[in-house]
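Anyone up for a design puzzle?
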């Protein structure tokens, strides 16, 4: 039978793994790669659609407007998801922190700072790569 201490340790590990899974899933949506690919795909799709159905200039302008509005909706959704993701992550961190001793909290806080710094660095690199395109 598991001791209370062992159960607490298993809960911490399970919570951490769940956080990794949620973070990795959200990362794809949040890093903007989908939107960058979507933008180039949309340009190609608008062009192909214009050729296929023989859009006139006015129709093509309207289609481009619709596509641009849709991209803005995707961007708004990405921001909303980022906000929700951060709230879930912060709740997870608070719950884990509440389980730790004061000594463990110091180590945990340091680890979180390092993790956040790495995440911010990756975000800056991804932004630089997107801007380079």
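Challenge accepted. My sequence:
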């Amino acid at each position: 039978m598991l001791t209370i201490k062992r159960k607490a340790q298993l809960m911490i590990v399970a919570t951490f793994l769940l956080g990794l899974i949620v973070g990795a899933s959200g990362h794809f949506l949040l890093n903007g790669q989908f939107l960058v690919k979507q933008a180039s795909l949309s340009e190609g799709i608008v062009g192909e659609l214009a050729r296929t159905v023989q859009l006139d200039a006015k129709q093509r302008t309207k289609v481009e407007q619709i596509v641009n509005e849709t991209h803005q909706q995707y961007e708004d959704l990405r921001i909303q998801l980022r906000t929700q993701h951060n709230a879930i992550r912060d709740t997870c961190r608070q719950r884990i922190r509440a389980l730790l001793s004061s000594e463990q909290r110091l180590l945990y806080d340091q680890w979180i700072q390092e993790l956040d710094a790495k995440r911010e660095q990756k975000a800056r690199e991804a932004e630089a790569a997107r801007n380079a395109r």
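A detail worth pointing out: DSSP finds four helices and no strands in the chain.
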